[in-house]
Amino acid sequence: MCLPTRHSQCLAPHLKWNPFMNCVNSSMELADPSDDHYCEQQNHKNGDTSAQSRIFIKNGLIVNDDQSFHADIYIEDGIIKQVGTNLVIPGGARTIDARGKMVMPGGIDTHTHMQMPFMGTVAIDDFYSGTKAALAGGTTMIIDFVIPAKGESLVDAYEKWRGWADAKVCCDYGLHVAVTWWSPEVAKEMEILSSEKGINSYKVFMAYKDSMMLEDPEIYNCFRRCKELKALPMVHAENGHLIDIKSKELLAKGITGPEGHAQCRPVEVEEEACTRAITIADQARSPLYIVHVMSIPSSNIIAKARKEGKVVFGEPIAAGLGTDGSHHFNKCWRHAAAHVMGPPIRPDPATPEHLMNLLANDDLQLTGTDNCTFNADQKALGKDDFTKIPNGVNGVEDRMSVIWEKGVYSGKMDPCRFVAVTSTTAAKIFNIYPKKGRIAVGSDADIVIWNGDATRTISAKTHHQAVDFNIFEGMTVHGVPEYVITGGSIVMDEGQLKVTQGLGRFVPTPPNSQYVYGRIDAREKALEPVKVDREAYAGPVVEVAAQETNNIHPKRAENPIVSDLTGEFHNRPPTRGGHQYDEHAPKRPGTKVSNPPGGKSTAFW
Ligand code: URP
Ligand code: ZN
Ligand code: ZN
């Protein structure tokens, strides 16, 4: 179904922007006093929020990731002060009766791009409408991405994002920083960001050739640097070179519509990059977080890597769990273009359920949305060429309900697992647990009172996002937040949303999360390279052959393979603790050598 365009005439009149691709110093002005968001901010600054500073939630079922139990909660000054029964509550507290409802930690969306300058335009949901929508859906914290242009200072980009976000956010937020180019300065700035600015996750792109993509050696260096800083490397895993080639082929065939987007980057393109990223991280001895896992093969690769003991985390997103990519082939261009994001939402209809099954069983760990929204007129930048359609879809408002519907209501996960994948695991990975992600004394009062039986029907006509399209349009979902409390303020009150611009705070994410790094050092020690102490080779060495003019390959020396029959040389691997360390490895009957001593042979010997 195609909906009429809202906000289609402009990007919001108070926003001044420069396209990301060409601009290192893109800037955006903050709220205009004539805008209604600004009034809300003023009300907050002049007004009285003390009526809500004491809250008593009684009779609810508290659900944490590891247990659920009946108890009451007392909140004061934004912090959970008491959890239990027969609590003694000071006067003046607002009482909420949560009988029959679940009381959960507010959702943490690990992956958003509010007002991101991207592909010649700026994402239409800014830090105000984006966080307002997040709260409407039960998410009380987002983690957004700072995306420096190639050559731009990471610290400057960080300050720019903070300037955009601090004045507008209605809930708490954290930041990841993308590493879009590599140099010693970048490595130095990562240290500043990690030690002074509260950044401890860095995303590299294997896609978006010519704008954000890094090559393998740069990725390796970045992962090593993350490891030194005890920060978490994240990766957008798609083979950017293949995408570039395949899009040109499709355009040459006259396939210019959004269906080209899905076909230029099939699952194999994600699968290959996912394997490569895991291999690079494993060799760099770093952990790895794979963002927006969209396909069956890549999710299986992550599950397998984890079973092999690699420290890898996989993040599916609401779009991939809640809908499928058949929409790219819709006859309506706007409808099809609205679903364009990278990696693509997969046309294979089995994909969402597969991703949900893995998420339910901890083969995948947590969820974000990659919320990065563009209106019809912005998507239209690619009306004649799918490679120019700004990539991104909605999700921040609907993630919790979509996962409840497809995960809990469907019987794949219990409410504790729901809390783990929507909140607690994010808090653990990004090292803000138990301040966030838990209902416990001392934790932030970011709380959702959830009615798992109530339903709502998702629509762009009623959602709180600025974008004019919703990829979940018409989906009826169980699971509705009846109350949402952020930092101790009730912002969703019996279904009524009343947010405050600028109320949210930046939440620094400290380094060295034990959930991530707990076994990294021991793992590195166990995998340390082996050095063999042996007497120096004292025999003859051939002269290096002069390079032949017409031959780019230097002449090969004699094949260095030696037999261990001489008693002088050994080609068996060295021992560890008296055992051959490959003694359990499957043995091959022989070794094929292209140039064995005594002449070339095609046989095994
Ligand atoms: O399509 C997407 N994913 N847009 C946002 C940029 C990114 O790759 O995360
Ligand atoms: Zn990405
Ligand atoms: Zn993203």
Automatic annotation (TrEMBL):
It catalyses: 5,6-dihydrouracil + H2O = 3-(carbamoylamino)propanoate + H(+). GO terms for biological process: pyrimidine nucleobase catabolic process. Its EC number is 3.5.2.2. InterPro entries: Amidohydro-rel, Hydantoinase/dihydroPyrase, Metal-dep_hydrolase_composite, Metal_Hydrolase, Metallo-dep_Hydrolases_sf. CDD domains: D-HYD. Its cofactor is Zn(2+). Residues 102-491 form the Amidohydrolase-related domain. Homotetramer. Belongs to the metallo-dependent hydrolases superfamily. Hydantoinase/dihydropyrimidinase family. This is dihydropyrimidinase.
